[in-house]
Amino acid sequence: MSGISSSASGGPCNFTGNEFDIDFEDDDNDFVNPLDYFIEEIAPPYVDSPKAQRYPEVPIRTTDWDISQGTKPAIKSTLVPFPFPGTGPAMLVDQPIPKGTEGKNTAIIITIDRSGSMGADAFPVKGRSLSRIEVARGIVCALIRLAQNQGDHFAVLSWGSGIYTEWPQNPPGSTDSWTMPLSTNYDEALEYFRQYESGGNCPYPPIPTTDGTTFSFATESLVEKIRSAGMESVVSFVVTDAFADYGSSGASAMFSGFFSPDPVTGIPRDTLLRRGDSSVYYFGIDNLGSASTCIKTAEQLNQLIDTHYGKPQKPKSAHFFPLDPANPNAARDMAQLMIELAEHD
Q1: 1-27 pLDDT tens trace
Q2: pLDDT exceeds cutoff 90 at 302
Q3: Which pLDDT band holds residue 314 (cuts at 50, 70, 90)?
Q4: DSSP secondary-structure letter at 260?
Q5: Cα 15 to Cα 164: distance, rounded to the nearest angstrom
Q6: Is the link from the previous residue into 168 a cis peptide, with omega within 30 of 0?
Q7: SS3 327
Q8: Architecture of domain 7-45+107-342
Q9: Is 276 left (phi over 0), alpha (psi -120 to 50) or beta?
């Protein structure tokens, strides 16, 4: 946990327990947590007995075969039949061992823009208003639930004028714990991100909106968090409300930031986030009045990314959703798409 007191113990933050069968009424204060309702709508149902977990609790990094190792680590003997049945007996051949015989280590990571404008109203729920950052936290909870069902590791980050670790944190309240491993502590993270402030400030609020916007920190936060983590497949998400900030040059500014070179490898950070079976997606949010500008920014960003790689990226990388009090369904559509992109067989 991150040192947050619950309403039951007299702390300033109100949140529910760590399951989704929610008692929405607070007997003492008649308190309604609108985030609980939103999460209940968008989160996949919890699978009590998921299929056998393919991923070790501690990531095991698979390595490429090197000639100095000889042939034993790289091949195994197996019996295979002749290509036509009945033409002869099976023969013994050497066949490459598949990479990751323990199953791929997979993760879902999301990094959230923590600029001041993320505190703007998004839409009302049960007589209370969710801000953009609270909608983002609701989607975080849905993705954590998906990670739990799939046996994925996960992390939640934020970025603005710097890069921050939101989960896991060590010690509580520290957002600079880049050496912390990716987490599988689903229930505790869900409890933390479902907090809703009612008439007071949490001592360590989940993703405070008091920062600027530097696009390079979005992908830097993701790359630094998974560096040397041993993950073979990572689905990464960036959420920001800055699609309209630079007008006609917005897509170019974002592209330059997201593709900024990694100082360790010299490779664009977006490219590092797509290695192997990994992928990265950029989600823009804003109000309906900025929709035309933001849609154009998303289209142009997709064009720049496709041109960089010399082919269309499928699914496309950039998306926009107008989170507006007049259009509450946009947040649900956004959550559904993010879950679909993060799902795997």
Answers
A1: 333 333 333 333 433 344 444 444 444
A2: yes
A3: very high
A4: P
A5: 23
A6: yes
A7: strand
A8: 3-Layer(aba) Sandwich (3.40)
A9: left
